[in-house]
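Teaching note: in complex prediction, the entire set of molecules is handled at once rather than each chain in isolation. The prompt given to students was simply: 'Predict the structure of this complex.' The entities are:
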Amino acid sequence: MSARTRPATLKDVAEAAGVSISTVSRVFSSPGRISPETSRRVREVASRLRFSPNVMARSLITGTSPNIGLVVPDISNPYMTTLLKAAQRVSRLQSTGIFVADTDDSADIEREVCEQFAQQSRGVVLCAPRMSTSHIREISQLVPLVLVNRVVEGIPSIYTDSRAALRELFDDLVEQGHRRIAYLPGPAASWSNKQRARTVTDRAKALDVELVRLDPTEGFHADGVAAAAAVLKHGVTAVMAFDDVLAAGLVEGLRRLGKSVPDDVSVTGHDDILSELVHPGLTTVTGQSDRVGQLAVARLLDGSDSDGAVGVKATVVRRLSTAPPRTA
Amino acid sequence: MSARTRPATLKDVAEAAGVSISTVSRVFSSPGRISPETSRRVREVASRLRFSPNVMARSLITGTSPNIGLVVPDISNPYMTTLLKAAQRVSRLQSTGIFVADTDDSADIEREVCEQFAQQSRGVVLCAPRMSTSHIREISQLVPLVLVNRVVEGIPSIYTDSRAALRELFDDLVEQGHRRIAYLPGPAASWSNKQRARTVTDRAKALDVELVRLDPTEGFHADGVAAAAAVLKHGVTAVMAFDDVLAAGLVEGLRRLGKSVPDDVSVTGHDDILSELVHPGLTTVTGQSDRVGQLAVARLLDGSDSDGAVGVKATVVRRLSTAPPRTA
DNA sequence: ACGTCCTTGTCAAAGGTTTGCACAGATTCT
DNA sequence: AGAATCTGTGCAAACCTTTGACAAGGACGT
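The expected output is the structure of the full assembly:
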C-alpha cells in the first residue's frame, strides 16, 4: 500500500536519455548551454521519470535553501494567520516552503527555533514584540532576519504604521464630544504597545483632552473583560484599546456590568481582526497584516541586503462601537 | 553587521580534537562505540566550536529529514491554529520543524505543496475534507500521510469523534421541549459535514422528532447570517449548526431580523473556537483539536506503520445559546 | 594548412555527513 | 602459547547535485 518508490535522480535521467549527468543538470539549471535538441530529449525523459531535483543535495552544494521561517508569539492571533497566508501566497510562486513556529513569547523557544531554522532556511520573518534588542541582534548573526512590527537599527523590518490612523480615530472621538478618553494598554514590553500609547498620549496633549492610561494588561480577552470596572470607575466616555481582542473583552465586560456600547461608552480596537464576530461591530484600525506579510517575504527573498524599516499605513474603519457621549 | 561566519563542520572538530571525522560523527550518532575519554574530549571541542551537524548533509545520506508538513484548508480557523500549536509542542521535543501550507481547499495547491514537502519531510499531516479519496491515495504514494478529520481505508487518520456528543446535544434540545430542529450544513463535500448531518438525522429519526435540513453552505460567517431568514421561514425552535463560525453568523443574522438567541431560537455550534467572543456564549461541542494535533504528529514520528483511524471523543459544552422554546 | 573561436558535451571535485569494512591492540578462552 | 573475541578508531564509499576545467569537433579567417 505505502510502497513508495525511490524518486528518480539525475543519474537515472542521464542514463535513460543517453547523456551525462552534468548535461541533465545543465538543462535545468543553466539553460542555453545545451542544444535545443538535447534539451528537449532530456526534458521529455525527465518528465516521464517524474524527475525532480533533490533539494537536500542541491542545498548542500549551493549553500542556500528553498525555505523560509516564520516565528511568531501566537499563531492563533488572526493578525498572524492573515500574515501567514499572504506570506505563503508570495513564497509559493518561488516554490519556497514556510516553517512556522509559535513561541509563546518565550525567549528560549525563539532562540531554539531560529537556530533550527537557520540551517534550513534562507531567512526568518521574526515577530517578537517583547524580545530584547540585544537578543534580536544575536539571532541576526545566525540567520538573515526580517522583523515584523518593531524597528531595530540595522535590521530590515516591516511594520503596520498606525500612528496617523490612531490620531484620526482620536480626533473623531474628540469631535464627537468625548473629553475624557482612556487608553487600554496591551503588554507593557511590546513595541507596538509603546508606539500606540505614545501616539495617543501625544495627541491628547496636543488637543488638550484628558487621557486616562489604564493598567497594563497581557492582552487577553479576559483582561479586557476585567478592565470594564476600571473604565467605569474612571468615568471615561470612550476607550481606545490596544487591539481588537482587548476591545472585544471590554465590550463583554461592560455588558456584564449592565452598560452598553456605544451608548454608555465608546470603544475602539486595533487590527480589524474581529469585524464580523463581535457585536456591535468594532470601530478599529486595519492591521494590513497581509501587506506586511507580503512585503516581509519579498524582502527576504529579494536578497537585497537593505536594512531600513518599512511602514505600511493603516486606515480607520468606522463601525458601530463609537458614538457621541450620552451627555454631549 | 550581517557577517555570518561559516558554521563548524565535522572536519573542523576532528582536526581540533586530533581524531578522525568518523570518530566525531560517531560520538553523536552512535554513542557507546567510542571510549568515554575520547567522547568527552570531542564533545568539549564541538561545543567550543558551536558545532551542530549539517541537516542537509545528514538528510542526504540517511534519506530522512527532521521536518514534517501540515497542510490545511484554512489556517485562520482557530481549530487549525490550536492543532498547529499542539503539533508543535510535540515536534519541538524531537527538534522537528513544521512546514505549514494553507491550501484554500484547492486540489492543485494541495498536490503542489505535498510534492514540495515530500522531499523535505518525514511525513505530512493532511487535512483536506473535500479532496477526493483517489486523490488522497495518490498523494499517499508520494509521502507518508496522517489524515485529520476524515477516514480513508488504509491510511492512518485522527479525527474528532463528535457523534456521541451531537446525540447528547440533540437529546438535550428535545428534552427541553424542542420538536422542530434544523441542521445548518457546512460544505457539502466535507467529510465532517456528512458525518454530522448523518448523526443528527439518525437521532431525529430515532426520537421521532422533525428535522429540517437547510441548504448546504460554504461554511462562512456570512452564510450563517444569510441562513437566518430560512430558519425563521421553517419555523424551527432550534438550530444545530455545522460549526461555531456558522452558528455565530446565524446568531448575528437572527439579531438583525430582530430575533433573540436563545429566547426565540436556540443555536448550537461545533468546535468550541469562539467561546469568549460571541454573545451569548455558544452551546457547542469541543473540537479537541489540540489532542488531534498531538496524536497526528506522534503517529507520524512514531513511524509505526499502523493504518487505523483513531477517534478523539468530543464532549458537550453548555453555554447560553440554548434554552427551552418559548412555547414550551 | 593552420591557428582561433565557438558550441556542445563530459570529467571530476566539492559539499558534510553516515556507515560498512578493515585494522590494531587488548582481553579472554582453550 | 596460540586462537578467538572484543574494543576503539580510521579509511573510504556513498548520498545527489552543481560547476569549473576541459576535450572534441566544426566553422572561419588568414
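Point out the following to students. Residues 19-23, 26, 33-35, 38, 57, 59-63 of chain B lie near DNA strand D (CB under 10 Å from a C1'). The longest helix of chain B spans residues 191-207.
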